[in-house]
Amino acid sequence: MTDIRGEVAAGVQDGVRQLLADDKLVSAFWATGYKALSEHASDNASQWIGRRILTWVAVSVVMALLAWLVKSGAIK
C-alpha cells in the first residue's frame, strides 16, 4: 500500500515548483499584488486626509460660532 499523503505532498510540491518556474506567471502575480496594495494605500491615504480636513472644518465652525456668541453677548 502506497502512502497517499506522501504522494499528494510530492505532487503539490512539484506543482508549486512548476508555477514558480514560470517567470511570466510570477511577474503577473507580483504586478497584481503591487497594484492592489498601491490602490489600497492611496485610498486609505486620501480617506485619512479627508477625515483630517473635515475635522478641522468642523472645529473651525464651532470655534467661530462660539466666538460670535461671546462677542454678541449671548454667552457671558
How are the elements arranged and paired?
Elements: H1 4-21, H2 23-72
Walk me through the structure.
- The protein has 2 helices and no strands.
- The chain is an all-alpha fold and 76 residues long.
- The chain has one domain.
- The protein is rod-shaped and about 90 Å long.
N→C terminal distance: 93 Å
Summarize the main sheet: none
Oligomer: single chain
The average pLDDT value, as a whole number, equals: 90
Give the H and E element order.
HH
Structural Rg = 30 Å
Fraction of residues in β-strands: under 5%
The proportion of residues forming helix, as a percent range, comes to over 70%
Low-confidence runs: none
- How many alpha or pi helices? 2
Say how many strands there are: 0
- In total, the number of domains comes to 1
Shape descriptor: rod-shaped
Helix and strand content put the structural class at mainly alpha
